[in-house]
Amino acid sequence: MAAETYAETRAMQVTAPAAAVRTGPGAGAEQVDQLLFGETFNVLETAEGWAWGQADRDGYVGYVELRRLSPEVIRPTHWVGAIRTYGFTEPSIRAPVAGLYSLNALVTVEEQADERFAKVARLGYVTLHHLSPIGDHLSGDPAGVAERYLGAPYLWGGRDSLGLDCSGLVQQALYACGRACPRDSDLQQGLGTPLEIGADLKGLQRNDLVFWRGHVGVMLDAERLLHANAHHMATAIEPLAGAVKRIEAAGSGRPTAYRRL
Q1: Is residue 209 scored above 90 in pLDDT?
Q2: What is the DSSP secondary structure assignment for residue 104, as one 8-state letter?
Q3: Which residues contact 207 (CB under 8 A, 6 or more apart)?
Q4: Which of 108, 140, 167, 220 has most Cβ atoms within 10 angstroms of its Cβ?
Q5: Domains of the chain by range and CATH?
Q6: How do residues 169-184 score in pLDDT, each as one tens digit?
Q7: 3-state class of 174 per DSSP?
Q8: What is the DSSP track for 29-67?
Q9: Which SS3 state, helix, strand or coil, does residue 175 take?
């Protein structure tokens, strides 16, 4: 937003497995986004246990609980490349669990504890093969990454593997493939190149995105759509033709755009 002057922000870092970004300073306010462990939040104001600011990774603005943030920001060296992984208090699978962390969480490896575990700052010990160095990516196949979330519960504003929404699913899949991605489906319609798809729905392929008003899904092949949706209340696969018919019957109209990544 244009202004004559801008206030200075203070970067803070998420130390919880995930932190809700809300529309107001209270646990009862709507969750509109989610921060993952290790992500930074640029804070403008704090009051009564809440910080108001902007997510550094996707630009979302809202309120985050201060207890989930640290004023000390440490540079990440790796990111979680598994759909989810446990942090343990000791380098042993029998040790108590320190937390459960999702794909794309950002971590700082302090040392390799042994051939199996890495010691991670603020987290504990994590299985080495669940971590990828910053700059390495899973693949060039976002649909394959999105399939890892199959069955995850639908959660409005969610971005982690325990619950996420339609645009959160697309964003997380693209992040894991090393691609930037906006948070909301209307902005995601600017990704890739437009496709001219007729009423017969022919001409689509794997990784094409299909948009409705306020919704998005990714094609697994020419006919099947994967999307986090409130009908199934989960990340689910269904024939695109069936989804189009169902969503239109519910009053949300036909697809508004098709994009090829």
Answers
A1: yes
A2: T
A3: 141, 142, 143, 218, 219, 260, 261
A4: 167
A5: 10-70 (2.30.30.40), 78-133 (2.30.30), 142-260 (3.90.1720.10)
A6: 999 999 999 999 999 9
A7: helix
A8: SPEEEEEETT-EEEEEEEETTEEEEEETTT--EEEEEGG
A9: helix
